[in-house]
Prior knowledge:
By secondary structure, this protein is α+β, with helices and mostly antiparallel strands. It contains 15 helices and twelve strands.
Amino acid sequence: MVTDTPILHVDMDAFYASALLRDRPELQDRPVMVGGGHRGVVLAANYPARAYGVRSAMTGTRARRLCPQVVVLQPDYDLFTAVSASVMEVFRRVTPLVEAVSLDEAFLDVRAAGRRAGGPVELGEWIRATVHDEQRIACSVGVAASISVAKLASRRAKPDGLLVVPPDEVTAFLHPLDVGELYGVGDKTRTRLHRLGLVTVGDVAHTPVATLRRDLGHHLGGHLHDLAWGVDVREVSPGRAGVFGHGGPPDRSMGAQETFGRDTDDREVVLRELLRLTAKVTARLRSAAVAGRTVAITVRFADFTTITRSRTLGEATDVTQEVYAAAVRLYDAQGLQRARIRLVGVRVEGLVPRQQVERQGVLGERDRGWADADRAVDRAARRFGSAAVRPASLLGPGAGR
DNA sequence: TCTGGGGTCCTAGGACCC
DNA sequence: TCTGGGGTCCTAGGACCC
């Protein structure tokens, strides 16, 4: 297909809320948010809730203050994953060049699209109609020559719309926008730019790139200057987003973290949580057939300051006890006797395919017993569900008696 | 009841090697 | 005595995205 705007960005509207509301039509027109329970933040809000100022990433407390009558729904990730897979499948009917960014958004390159009906706009409208018919969820589409402009266009098209930005209108579209709209500009960078007097994308575009590099760092400075002129050479790469299991590049790390119900200074409580999180992570490593050399822990204190500590091992591992032992060493090395701890996390980095490790004859030989125990746990989890199997020290007092 | 959980990438300093 | 210059790995922190 010959077109000067071959990139589509498709973004579900209020995805988590929309997915849950499919089966709760009576709530459709009432303000609804997903998540935001004890110590949690809002994961998604439907448009009636947004009318009250409720936004994702806001604390549940704040959201309820803004909208006391808001209906709170619990997230259902199995449902979200299933709906997402169906939606992505719709995209692939248009083109194989689909890059899933997350469960609810994707880039499509329609240059190689078949003869399905017309140009990018027709394809975009077909996707919107089909997703709506088959999945009962509204989505918005941005159409442009590049990934970054398509992404901004879909945001402007919301809710339930489509916006094309032709190449000769890119700067007119971009330059009035606030710098915070640019991909890669979060709260911190936006504030810094504003303090430098750079408020709009046009301001960034007309600042010498050397100045931007000096003030923001070499990479970010150059990147933002490019984006401000709509220069973005990144291609849609279907290999990305390994979460969806489409044979993309393997993940670079896997981790798990959790905020305690209330802050704790009890080493035993912390270690039990580290073991639980480690078991969760290593089970994922094994099911993905990868192992990692670096073990990192995260500790967040009551005042929200957060530290990470990491240690690189001699060889990659997926063995629960090895990762756990490293995590405990890292934790104990901090000497946190009296600290009030809010959250701990465990992450394994530097992942490589397990065969690579096995070929070196290492994995499983060092601690055959522990590796065998892990395999037994994996088998039992497959048969009885993961809730049925966990390390003995995670069982409460009296368990098994 | 202020502030989740899953990630990626960049920067920067020091160690270490050639 | 008067001191290079890269390259890579490791660690810690921070910003960002969804």
